[in-house]
């Protein structure tokens, strides 16, 4: 974790201190905010590689703040939610608002570090200057940009990686197991995490347009291709 810059947003001071000290022992540089007001200032003044974000915060909650980062600031840094809320609907809400991972309190600090490292490693893996294109959909790995019909699309970092995998493998079908392994390795959150990210990806890539490109083959996997390529 050397040279990683992390923003920790957590209102429980004792927990925040414990997490901060442990991450710094692993070589990371950590800034701390006890509320989203201060976090808003910090993200506009500094670059961070990743954010650890509590859900239950005073004033604005973590879900709303994450959505603000994605939609208003267009920040694509990975976000890991930290919360005691462990119900499925809570996890889906976190992914829907732009989160990339979700760890339930109380958690083991080595697991948190493993999730941070895995998320950063997969975000940085295989970044090249080669633009991928299918129909009017373009993905630029170097600029971390996706456009369809010339319109820039807003994707979370995880949705961006899913799309890149599917476009890289197109027109082949990518299994759920392959997607999960490339995204999370052996630290897969749960089956609904991938489903939620795919739902948000489809909403961004297909819903505003006439032609759907993202295809689901039940029990087989996922692919992205022009409909003319899969017509009987």
Automatic annotation (TrEMBL):
Example of a GO MF term: phosphorelay response regulator activity
SMART domains, per database record: REC (SM00448), Trans_reg_C (SM00862)
InterPro entries the record matches: CheY-like_superfamily (IPR011006), OmpR/PhoB-type_DNA-bd (IPR001867), Sig_transdc_resp-reg_receiver (IPR001789), WalR-like (IPR039420), WH-like_DNA-bd_sf (IPR036388)
GO CC terms: cytosol; protein-DNA complex
DNA-binding region in chain numbering: 129-226
Single GO biological process annotation from the record: regulation of DNA-templated transcription
Residues with PTM 4-aspartylphosphate: 54
Domain Response regulatory: 5-120
Gene3D superfamilies xrefs: 3.40.50.2300, 6.10.250.690, Winged helix-like DNA-binding domain superfamily/Winged helix DNA-binding domain
Phosphoprotein is among the record's keywords: yes
Keywords: DNA-binding, Phosphoprotein, Transcription, Transcription regulation, Two-component regulatory system
Domain OmpR/PhoB-type, first and last residues per copy: 129-226
Tagged with keyword Transcription regulation: yes
Pfam families named among the record's database cross-references: Response_reg, Trans_reg_C
Name of the protein this chain belongs to: DNA-binding heavy metal response regulator, putative
